[in-house]
Fold this sequence. Notes:
It is a single chain. The protein is α/β, with parallel strands linked by helices. The chain is 53% helix and 17% strand. It has twelve helices and eleven strands. It has helices at 2-24, 32-41, 55-75, 88-91, 112-115, 118-127, 141-145, 166-181, 198-203, 230-238, 255-269, 271-314, and strands at residues 28-29, 44-50, 78-83, 98-103, 106-110, 134-136, 156-161, 187-192, 211-216, 219-223, 247-248. Helix 3 (55-75) packs across helix 6 (118-127) and helix 11 packs across helix 12 (271-314). The chain is globular and about 90 Å long.
Amino acid sequence: MFREHFFLLLMFIYCGLLTDLIKSQTLEVVTDNELLDLCRSENQVVALFTLKECEKCKKYEETLTQIREELVDSLNAWVVKVEGSNLVHIYNPAKEPTLVMFRHGVPLLVPEPEAVNDEFLIDMLLNNRDPIVKELNDNSFEHLTQASTGATTGDWFIKFYSSDSIECQRLQARWETVGAKLKNRVNVARVNRYIGGSTTARRFAISQSPTFILLRRGVMYTYTSTDHTIESFLKFVEEDYKFTVKGQVPQPKSAFDDFLHMCFDIIRENPLVWKLGLTVLSVILLCLAALKTTSKPSEYKSKKKSTKSSSKKSK
């Protein structure tokens, strides 16, 4: 009897350990809404976007599972999986499989070479636990970049963006990866061309979102390619800028020049404004012309009356 109870106890312990082992070798599955809640409440979240019956996705999951415990211990990170997500296109246009690390809600897209190699992956995630891209505005831009004095603080790769641009939103995770890849070599930053950075955007004649410029040793290079991949950005900074037309870094504008530029931008971006203004001006001129025309007969009549009265007095 004792042996039977002891055997059952051993089986119970074995099943519990086996269950824990299986759980440790699989990732917790969450929904899109649960993922968003985690990103809002947790400092570190590593999310794997996958599809069912996807061999490449399985390779991503195997690699992430191998380092899961280390991520939990070192970063206190949540490591989860999202299947068939509607959010994946925001972080990666290539969709599943996609591995994203959220640091205080800021996404970092993990490239495939790192995502399928456990050593590369743990190194990238542990060394980029905080957001990398610097947020510049009109007050901090010149102080940090020293662009007009030759960029003595190093080279700067800057993205001008706007909050209402969907393409800019989709670029955030990739732009953070560019910052991670260029870490300690090139400063990677961004400027909101409408909120906080409008003066700087006018200074550099930025008229579209997104626009990318490289400030290197007092020279400005504009990224003109429509290829917004991580590889293309890195190739531009490391090699392709040499084949781009050199531009002079514009000096900060005076308040008056900036005001004129702002008016010009308003007119250019809102054609109805100048059309409406021209219409109003035309109406005003027509009214003035009409008033001038009606005032002439009145003046003539008053002059005629004054002439008659003066002639009567003389008699």
